Amino acid sequence: MANRVNCSVNNCHYWTQGNACAASSIMITSDQMGYEEPDSFDAPQASLAPPSPVESCMETCCKTFVAKGSPHIQDDGVYK
Ligand code: SF4
Fold it and tell me: Which of 8, 9, 11, 54 is nearest to 34 (CA)?
């Protein structure tokens, strides 16, 4: 069975019906790294990211999120 990312964040550019993520790749990281790194640091650079441990799911985020219609959709090198 193909890997599937389920996501309910429906204002994301990559979100599709049925709560499925249509991004070519995503990066999950700590909230802190999501805050500190620029939009251009995303899934294509994920293998270079330093470890970013957290204590709970509330401290993680999807760094690939970009709002529908945002002028920054192309900034991260991720595509649908
Ligand atoms: S990129 Fe992240 S926030 Fe956007 S639909 Fe995929 S998993 Fe959800």
Answer: 54
